[in-house]
UniProtKB/TrEMBL annotation:
<dbReference type="InterPro" id="IPR034593">
    <property type="entry name" value="DgoD-like"/>
</dbReference>
<comment type="similarity">
    <text>Belongs to the mandelate racemase/muconate lactonizing enzyme family. GalD subfamily.</text>
</comment>
<feature type="region of interest" description="Disordered">
    <location>
        <begin position="138"/>
        <end position="165"/>
    </location>
</feature>
<dbReference type="InterPro" id="IPR036849">
    <property type="entry name" value="Enolase-like_C_sf"/>
</dbReference>
<dbReference type="InterPro" id="IPR013342">
    <property type="entry name" value="Mandelate_racemase_C"/>
</dbReference>
<dbReference type="GO" id="GO:0008927">
    <property type="term" value="F:mannonate dehydratase activity"/>
</dbReference>
<dbReference type="InterPro" id="IPR029017">
    <property type="entry name" value="Enolase-like_N"/>
</dbReference>
<dbReference type="InterPro" id="IPR029065">
    <property type="entry name" value="Enolase_C-like"/>
</dbReference>
<protein>
    <submittedName>
        <fullName>Mannonate dehydratase</fullName>
        <ecNumber>4.2.1.8</ecNumber>
    </submittedName>
</protein>
<keyword id="KW-0456">Lyase</keyword>
<keyword id="KW-0479">Metal-binding</keyword>
<feature type="domain" description="Mandelate racemase/muconate lactonizing enzyme C-terminal">
    <location>
        <begin position="112"/>
        <end position="248"/>
    </location>
</feature>
<dbReference type="InterPro" id="IPR013341">
    <property type="entry name" value="Mandelate_racemase_N_dom"/>
</dbReference>
<dbReference type="Pfam" id="PF13378">
    <property type="entry name" value="MR_MLE_C"/>
</dbReference>
<dbReference type="Pfam" id="PF02746">
    <property type="entry name" value="MR_MLE_N"/>
</dbReference>
<keyword id="KW-0460">Magnesium</keyword>
<dbReference type="GO" id="GO:0000287">
    <property type="term" value="F:magnesium ion binding"/>
</dbReference>
């Protein structure tokens, strides 16, 4: 979902990402039916003023739909600010701390051999950080770009059996997932040694105590970080996780509100903030939390899967280049027609994400071409995650 903010100057417009893959229609309505009548005619220079106007005008605020709608406009206003200043956002924000942002991609496989081959492919592309996933061990975007977990967590030989009459869903066996993932991490570490940084995403699918135990079991593999070990609803358990293990902790893609990330930052219960920038309301709040996190020794690792638009990935990149406390950037390479639909996509090579020198965010949108690739409104399957006994769980 990309928002285009047009101005009174012909040809001068800004673009912003408001991508909420699973509920894009309400985001579209929030922008067109509510923010557009609120904003038309106002001064595009006043970004903070307009961000607060958009967020408070509905009285009830935040949440994924409104945050993504506000982000689309917010990023577009920053894009315009850069275009008017004739500077890329990384210059407008004080200049680069680094030439490019180190990235990680995903490696998965149904067998240890398949997983190793995929890791080797990543290393051959110059990658040094790789997120490991074994089988369908957690839902989410598979390395191929398709989103969704497999029938059972881990390889498909899970011992768990469904009860008679169990409802359809993306079945997941927590115990099988943890045991098979530890085996996979051990295999990859033994095969590739310390030439590689390992990351893993639990995807919030363990109970708190199992997540703490799993994080501790991961210590021997020296992960770069363990992501979403706990769900946002279990945020208070991060205190116990922190005192139980030295595994670095990353969380944030599901967060909507500062009340979710601030306790984890001010208590130093985590090591990386991983928000989905459009989900938290755009670049304006993301810049603020980056500076806050720096004071607490916490690094950034913005969410960057296949369901962030190239405008959003480029926005992440401007944050990454200017933050002293940048950690790592997740990247789903731009495949197929994407680079044509979005001219100016940042360039990925040898494990780094490079910006262009265009003003603003630096990515354009070919609307005519985009028309050929409509969004998919079908019912989401992979988020219908169920335990072996059929209990529906957080995906
Ligand atoms: C990640 C995320 C994704 C999400 C997906 C949801 O760390 O990249 O967990 O895999 O599952 O973005 O739509
Ligand atoms: Mg994740």
């Amino acid at each position: 979902m990309v928002v285009k903010v047009e101005t009174s100057e012909p040809g001068l417009y800004g673009l912003g990402c408001g991508t909420f893959t699973q509920r894009y229609l309400p985001v579209r309505s929030a922008v067109l039916d509510y923010l557009r009548p609120l904003l038309v005619g106002r001064d595009i220079a006043r970004i903070e003023e307009l961000w607060r106007l958009m967020m408070f005008n509905s009285y009830w605020r935040n949440g994924p739909v409104l945050n993504n709608a506000v982000s689309g406009v917010d990023m577009a206003l920053w894009d315009l600010k850069g275009k008017l200043a004739k500077m890329p956002l990384y210059d407008l924000w004080g200049g680069k701390c680094r030439e490019a942002a180190a990235v990680y991609q995903h490696a998965d496989g149904e067998t240890l051999e398949e997983l190793s081959d995929h890791v080797q492919q990543q290393l051959d592309q110059g990658m040094r950080h790789v997120r490991i996933r074994f089988g369908g061990s957690a839902a989410g975007t598979r390395a191929s770009g398709e989103t969704g977990g497999l029938a059972y967590g881990g390889p498909s030989d899970s011992p768990a059996r469904r009860p008679d009459g169990a409802l359809e869903g993306a079945y997941f066996d927590p115990r099988h997932y943890t045991l098979s993932t530890l085996k996979a991490l051990q295999h990859v570490r033994e095969r590739f040694g310390d030439q590689i940084e390992l990351l893993h995403d639990v995807h919030e699918r363990l109970t708190p105590i199992d997540a703490i135990g799993f994080a501790k079991d991961c210590e021997e593999f020296k992960l770069f970080f363990l992501e979403d070990a706990l769900s946002p609803e279990d945020g208070a358990w991060f205190e116990k996780m922190r005192s139980a293990t030295t595994t670095p902790i990353a969380v944030g893609e599901l967060f909507n509100h500062p009340n979710e990330w601030m306790p984890l930052i001010e208590n130093r219960w985590i090591d990386f903030i991983r928000m989905h920038v459009s989900q938290m309301g755009g670049l304006t709040p993301a810049r603020k939390v980056t500076a806050t996190a720096e004071s607490f020794g916490i690094r950034t690792a913005w969410h960057g899967p296949g369901d962030v638009s190239p405008v959003g990935h480029a926005a992440n990149l401007h944050l990454n280049l200017t933050a002293p406390n940048f950690g790592i950037q997740e990247l789903q390479p731009f495949t197929g027609p994407t680079p044509e639909v979005f001219p100016g996509c940042p360039e990925y090579r040898d494990g780094y994400f490079y910006p262009n020198t265009k003003p603003g965010i630096g990515v354009d949108l070919n609307e005519a071409l985009a028309e050929k690739y409509p969004c998919d409104p079908s019912v989401i399957q992979w988020t219908q995650a169920r335990l072996p006994d059929g209990t529906l769980v957080k995906p």
